[in-house]
Amino acid sequence: MKKMIVVLCVVLFLFIHCGLSSVTPATEPASRHHFPEPQTIIPISEQLNMPFSHNIKEQITLTAALKQINSQTGISVIIDHGELQGSGVDWEKKINFYLPFKILLSDFLDYLTKQQNLAWIVQNDDYILITSKKYAEKYEKILNYYVGDLLAMEAEGNVQETDAAAFQSIIDYITVMIDSETWNGNIQAFHPNLSLVVHQPINVHKQITELLQQLREAKTKK
Hints:
By secondary structure, this protein is an alpha+beta fold. It has 8 helices and 12 strands. It has 2 domains: 44-137, 3-Layer(bab) Sandwich (Phage tail protein beta-alpha-beta fold); 140-221, Alpha-Beta Plaits, CATH 3.30.70. Strands 3-7-6 form a 3-stranded mixed sheet. A 3-stranded antiparallel sheet has the order 8-12-11. Strands 1-5 form a two-stranded antiparallel sheet. The protein starts with a helix and ends with a helix.
């Protein structure tokens, strides 16, 4: 009788021990979620001055070329159909394309739009708008122009204190040489970084760039 009890106890012990060891947890630990690393978004204004690689060999339609910009850069390119209505632009007409395979994005856009007498502008650094030259010339932007090298305020190669009179001299020269109906208060000196802050239409900005370049060339010849 005692032997039977001992045997039963051993069997019970083995059953409990083996049974518990084979039990798996009721729930598996939650799997980890791997999220993609956030990508650095480069502003459109910076991408315009970066190399753009295309695969166009000889001819391409304007529509296909604009799609290629979007697919390679992620920049939204929007056509201003309202402004261009009745302009006769043929978006599917193949245009000759003879440019290096790697050029600045801004040069790429210039070449494409000129083929159809169009223009492009960047709207709030959100997207590129393909529009008419007339609209683009009226579109106003705020740009900074460094003029520290034109202030004649340097000592041993280092710009010292800013001279308000020198700033005003450059401003007066620009406003006299370039005709604009909106100069009043829209060109100001920004002393901390020796620059001019200008709020003007695109066509005026182009003239300012050319005028400042002429001033620099004249300075280097002295």
